[in-house]
Design goal:
5 strands, five-stranded mixed beta sheet, 22% strand, Rossmann fold, 252 residues
């Protein structure tokens, strides 16, 4: 063998060794081979969170409650019972005569007497006003406007709802409110030529709107006779005169 043949064999041998090493190295660096080796030695193949080999990454979606999935209980949120509820804003001029205000050294009392239907009883209000004047109290008969009765404010105040007084600031305008609701029924006696009898039932209250207390409360029942309804009612009011005077004296 000549010198040239020996060199070529040596070169082929070196090339073969290098190619073999590269092949072996590439084999062990292959991902599939790494996974097999790790599994043989008790280690799981490395996979990214939320992914699996051969699959696309998964995105987590919120589970919505359905028929078979119970809804998670919501936090127990309770309403604070001590929290004041908002009041409906009331314009005083809608219900009362705002031109009237309290005077130093003079007591004022607003008078409101109505039947259940809302009709006034002028003769009864006039009788109460006369008795108040005798006691040194100035009566005010034109203090409340029709809306005060029509929208139920009068009934609320009569029932003891002082919120009405606070919203309308009644204590800044008058000292007292004499408020009453009555019922009048009529009957006829043909034996006496059609004489009418007015049966008056009245519940009257005296309210101190400055200190927010009830001065007095009383129910009156009295009849009155006449050949017209107006005359019969007037006589019934006159029959109440003595009892009304006693009521005003005790209240003031």
């Amino acid at each position: 063998m000549n010198e040239n043949d020996s060199r070529w064999k040596k070169w082929y041998y070196q090339v073969g060794v290098v190619v073999g090493l590269v092949t072996i190295l590439g084999f062990f660096l292959s991902p599939n081979v790494r996974d097999v080796i790790r599994e043989l030695f008790g280690r799981k193949p490395a996979t990214s969170a939320g992914t699996e080999p051969g699959n696309h990454p998964r995105t987590s979606e919120p589970v919505r409650p359905g028929k078979d999935t119970p809804e998670r209980p919501k936090p127990d949120i309770k309403e604070n019972p001590l929290e004041p509820r908002p009041l409906v804003k009331v314009l005083p001029g809608q219900y009362i005569n705002t031109a009237i205000s309290r005077r130093e050294g003079m007591k004022r009392a607003a008078i409101l007497v109505r039947q259940g239907s809302g009709e006034s009883i002028p003769s009864l209000e006039s009788a109460i006003a006369s008795l108040l004047t005798k006691r040194g109290v100035e009566p005010v008969q034109s203090f409340f406007k029709p809306a005060f009765i029509q929208e139920g404010q009068a009934k609320s105040l009569f029932a003891g709802d002082w919120t009405v007084s606070e919203q309308l600031q009644l204590g800044h305008r008058v000292d007292y409110v004499l408020i009453g609701f009555g019922k009048v029924t009529y009957s006829s006696n043909q034996e006496l030529g059609g004489l009418l009898t007015a049966n008056l039932e009245l519940e009257l209250k005296c309210l101190n709107v400055v200190s927010q207390r009830i001065c007095d409360s009383k129910t009156f029942v009295t009849p009155g006779a006449g050949f017209t309804q107006g005359t019969a009612l007037q006589n019934a009011v006159e029959h109440l005169q003595h009892e009304l005077e006693s009521f005003v004296r005790e209240a003031f």
